[in-house]
Structure formats: structure tokens, C-alpha cells
Fold this protein.
Amino acid sequence: MVWEGRVRGGENYSEEFKDEVVKAVLNERSTIGQAAKDFGVSRQSVRNWVTKEKRRRSGPRSMQGEGTPTRDLSLKSSRRRTATALCQERRSS
């Protein structure tokens, strides 16, 4: 089955078409490979659309979580201040 909602011309597809393909995969009616075959598009296109939708559904991510660059920099700054304080104490003793 090839869905007629696609718009050819430099491999551009309508949002409605992409939504149908993604729904087929996310609702577990189809694998990425099978959806690509059924809708007449590349596996990579389907994979990209599904990934984009999964990211959209997961919402914005906090940049202040553990292991983020901001947290790592704070730890490094804290360690640096502690090391500096220890060096200053040793010099004054």
C-alpha cells in the first residue's frame, strides 16, 4: 500500500504523510523497515521521523541534571577553590 499523501519534489513529504508513517511505527502496527516499504520511502526517512516524534513527546530536557556540563563545571570550580585554599594554608603555615 502506498499512501497518496506524499508530495514529491526533492523528497519533500507533507506533515500529514509523515504523521501517518510515524503512527504506523509507534502504534506497533509496523516496523521501520515495513513502514518504509508500505509507504514507499527510505528506512532512514522513517527512522528520522520516528526519532523526531519521540523527542517531541519526551519534552524539553533540563540542562541542570546530573552529568550535564553545568554540573561538571560547578564541581570543577568547587574542587579548584578547595585546592587553592589548601595551598594557601600550607604557604601560611
About this structure: Helices lie at 15-26, 32-39, 43-58, 69-92. The chain has a mean pLDDT of 79. The domain at 1-60 is CATH 1.10.10 (Arc Repressor Mutant, subunit A). The chain has two domains: 1-60, 62-93.
